[in-house]
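Reply to dn_fold:

You asked what the input looked like. This is it:
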Amino acid sequence: MGKDVSKLMKDLESKEYYIRRNAAQDLGDIKEKTAVSKLIELLKDDSEEVRSYAAEALGKIKDKRSILPLIEALKVNWNEGFDEIWPGGEISRSVGGDFIVPALQQFKIEDLKDHLLELMVCDEFHIQHDARKVLEAVGDSTVVEELIEIRDNHKDHETRRVAHLALTNMDRDRFSPKVQSFEDVVEIWERNLDRDRGIEAYEWLEENGQGLEEELLELLVNKSGNVKVEAGYALARLKDKRALPYVIEIFKRSERNSTELHLSAGAIELIGDDSAIPDVIEVLNNGPDMTHRSYAAKVLGELGGDDALSALIDALGHYGSYVDKDIARAIGSIADERAVEPLMELLDDAKDDDLRLSIVCALGNIGTPEVVPVMREGLNDKYRYIRDRSREFLQKMGESVDDQ
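and this is what came back:
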């Protein structure tokens, strides 16, 4: 029995959201083109369900009139209004990419191409990825050259990365072939666009890196940027101490929260040479920001030794709770009883729950009789994780634990 289109069209204007939702679904199922204009309006509905069913219906109907409204809706963040895109819009929420992307994937690439390529170079990261998902589903050879141009020449690195991901998912054999040589490894480092490919590069080096130390050292000495950093980390994985002065320098000058900082710190840990300790202590005490200090604390915890321990103890309480958490963890890794008293003093003054947890764990790792009262007190702490870890450490130390 056919559906009453006139009733469904009227239902789209109902005050009840579920009636509007069901009508949108039914009109999409029968691909009713006369409903397109009203379904477009429902992309601005106050109900998330109605918006999603309206978008889905427009995807099923595949009327070109809905492409631009769907594209425009994709540009709107959940916390932004439609006023900038549709002046006078009353609703402050958008459809959202999760609903729009499947709808746009129902259309042909020739109708979407220009819109999607424009979105691929916009300033909003999540919109770029929504456009990428549509391209991966409907794209063909007609968009490849434009994506290559974005990947190779766009000024923004993350935009290049998104374009590369689109190309890879469209044609993996062409744009992400298996790593087969050292030249492939270097090319991956130079592009620095694909994290999975970066892992593949290190897997190749794991099997084939022995004998390539000189080539890696040449890259570390003579190259810059990501190639230099990756070569230093690769040499560190091979335990080549010649990389140490270079990765220390990278560690000191790297930007906050960067891949350089992460890899150079990891390289110093992998090499594991005590000669790095003075430089790392310098970063702990005089680093440009708390992130560098935190990484320095982690490295000192891995390197260990008296000088590292003394520097960590001296730094406690001087650089804020963010850094203190990593200092406490580092001291816990060294697990020297000389740190018990300064850790207890910091615990008495600490307000941050995560910092208190880090201190308790450090004391628990040290595990001397002096820490037992701290663990017993921790059994009744307001913070569940402190209660749990205190119980674990007491049991590990062979102490009785009554049910609390």
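Confidence is low (pLDDT under 50) at residues 78-95.
Hope that clears it up.
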